[in-house]
Amino acid sequence: MRDKEEQDDDGHPDLASRLTDDHHQSLKLWLRMLSCTVRIENEIRSRLRASFNITLPRFDLMAQLERHPDGLRMGELSRRMMVTGGNVTGITDQLEREQLVVRVPHRTDRRGYSVKLTDEGRRAFAEMAVVHEGWIASMLKDMPTAEKTQMIGLLAEMKRRLDGLGRDAT
Fold first, then answer.
1. What is the distance between the alpha carbons of residues 63 and 125, in angstroms, rounded to a whole number?
2. How many CA atoms are closer than 13 Å to the CA of 26, on its beta-carbon side?
3. Domain map of the chain by residue range?
4. Contact 64, 83 (CB under 8 A)
5. Per-residue pLDDT of the chain (170 residues; tens, 9 = 90+)
6. Facing residues of 72 across strands?
């Protein structure tokens, strides 16, 4: 029987665990990363909803804006969040109704707008961010610091190698 960490929520071996040595290592790696990401995201989604009545995409948009006090254009938010412009518009509309963000005329392009956190949005995000960081730390507390550091380095190298993917396709 396989370890619990290699089982899905129903107690069955997860797909990455069922792959044999004959399967491509890259596929196994991708499936393992995806499995970990989905588990963490699902837990964070649930906790954000229960504790703050907010969705993960709304939290993510606020996180982007917190890093850019002058605001970001909708297209830039879409690119940074890796979602469609329509998604960003819908999320922004919700946050604007709650007075957590505001659309302001762009500083240099009179045709466009930037989205910024309001004072209330900055306060709310600061509170959520502290709790969010604690949740992540708690979920990963059993992984030794040296292993976390090694994984950060390996994933940074993977990202560097993947950055050129779209440019090479013909």
1. 7
2. 2
3. 1-53, 54-158
4. no
5. 444 456 666 777 676 666 666 668 888 899 999 999 999 999 999 999 999 999 999 999 999 999 999 999 999 999 999 998 889 999 999 999 999 999 998 878 778 889 999 999 999 999 999 999 999 999 999 999 999 999 999 999 999 999 887 665 54
6. 115
d(Cα 61, Cα 98) in Å, to the nearest integer? 14
Please report, as a single letter, which amino acid is at residue 58: R
Q: Are 102 and 115 in contact (CB under 8 A)?
A: yes
54-158: CATH number:
1.10.10.10
- Tell me which residue of 6, 2, 3, 1 sits closest to 28, measured CA to CA: 6
Beta strand residue intervals within 1-135, DSSP E = 72-73, 101-105, 113-117
Cα of first residue to Cα of last residue in the chain, in angstroms, is 45
Q: What are φ and ψ of residue 111, in 5° steps?
A: -80, -20
Bridge partners of 13, per DSSP, are 7
Q: How far apart are CA 162 and CA 143, in angstroms?
A: 26
DSSP 105: E
- pTM recorded for the entire structure: 0.79
Q: Specify the residue for token string 């050129």.
A: 164
DSSP letter at 14 equals P
